[in-house]
Amino acid sequence: MVKFYESSFSYDYPFPAVSLAYFLRYPNPYAKHVLSTDVIDRHFDSDSQRLYTTRLHLKRSKLPPTVLKLLPKGILGSNSDSGQSYILEKSVVDVQEGWMTTETRNLEWTGILSVVEKQSYHRPTRDGVSDRGRTSNDSQTGTTDVKTSTTFVSRFGQGGLRTARRRAGVVHTDKGSELEVPDDVQPKRGFFSTWSTSSLQRTIEAIGMRRTREALLKSKDGMNVVLSRMRSGGLVEVLEGMRKDREAMYGPEGPWRRTWKQGKGIEDDE
Q1: Runs of H (alpha helix) within 52-170
Q2: What are phi and psi of 9, to 5 degrees?
Q3: Which of 77, 79, 189, 234 is the one with CA 20 to 30 A from 94?
Q4: What is the pLDDT of residues 142-183, one digit of tens each?
Q5: How many CB atoms lie within 10 A of CB 242?
Q6: Tell me: the pLDDT tens digits for 62-83?
Q7: Which residues 6+ apart lie within 8 Å of 143 measured at CB?
Q8: Contacts of 232 (CB under 8 A, 6+ apart)
Q9: What CA–CA distance (Å, rounded) separates 119 from 144?
Q10: Which are the contacts of 237, defined by CB distance < 8 A and separation ≥ 6?
C-alpha cells in the first residue's frame, strides 16, 4: 500500500537566507526531539557549482501508541523501547540558479512504515523562468517557494502474506504468472486473513500521514524562528539562539553528558 501527501507554501525570506537556515535549523524551540546532527558527506562540484550534503539526524521518536496496538506483541523486539531513531537526509544546493532539493527518509521501522519526504526550495519564477540575474538588493528581499512531497509505504505483513499465498495454493510458474491450485486441494482461509494485512497497512499509512502534517507545521515554525534571528542579528544571533535552545533542552552540559551520567548511574544535580 502507498499513500502520498503534498503541500506548498512560501517563506517571506530570500532563497540565500532560507537555504542557509535549512542547515542551521536544529536545534530550535519546535524541534526539541532532535538530539544530534552529523554531516556524513559534503562536497562541492566545481563543474555544476552545486553543493551536495548527506547528514544523519538522531531524533527522540517512538512508534505512535495507536500503531503499536495494531502490531503483534514482540514484533519490534527492543526497538520499540529505544525512544530514538535515525533519519537520513540528502540535499543539493544550486545558489546560482536559486534552488535546493532535499530528501529525508527514516532508517528505523522501515518494514512497518517507510516515509520518504522530498522538498524543493526555489526562487519565485517569472513566466516560468527562474530569476538568476538578481542584484545584491534583490538578495535581501523576496520570498522562497517550497513544495513538499511525502510518500508513505507500509510493507507490514507482506512476508506473511506471501507465505499464506503459498499455503493457499497460489504458485508461480517459470514465466512469472500465477497459477491457482484447485479449490478442493486448497486449505481453508479465515475471513480475517483475507483483509487484515491491507487494512493494517492502510491504517498505519494514515497515521503516518497525520503525523507528517503536524510535523510540517512545526518544521515551518522552526525555520521561521531561525530566519527571524538571521534577519535581526545575522549569523551571530542564529548561533546564540542555537546555544540557548540547546541549553534549554539539555542543560549546560548538553545531551551526551546527560546520557553518559545515566549510563553510569549518576544522578543530575538539582
Answers
A1: 65-68, 158-167
A2: -160, 180
A3: 234
A4: 899 999 999 988 877 665 545 445 555 544 444 444 444 444
A5: 17
A6: 666 666 555 655 555 545 555 7
A7: 10, 11, 12, 13, 14, 124
A8: none
A9: 12
A10: 229, 230
The grid coordinates listed for 78 are 527492543
Grid cell, residue 134, equals 538578481
SS3 239: helix
Q: Which amino acid is at 259?
A: T
How many other C-beta atoms are found inside a 10 Å radius of the C-beta of residue 54?
Answer: 15
Q: Could you give the dihedral angle defined by the CA atoms of residues 153, 159, 162 and 167, in that order, rounded to the nearest 10 degrees?
A: -150
Q: What is the pTM of this model?
A: 0.73
Torsion sign (Cα): 156, 54, 259, 24: negative
* Peptide linkage before 27 cis (omega within 30 of 0): yes
C-alpha 207/C-alpha 195 separation (Å) is 18
Is the separation of the CB atoms in 223 and 1 below 8 Å? no
The type of residue at 117 is: E
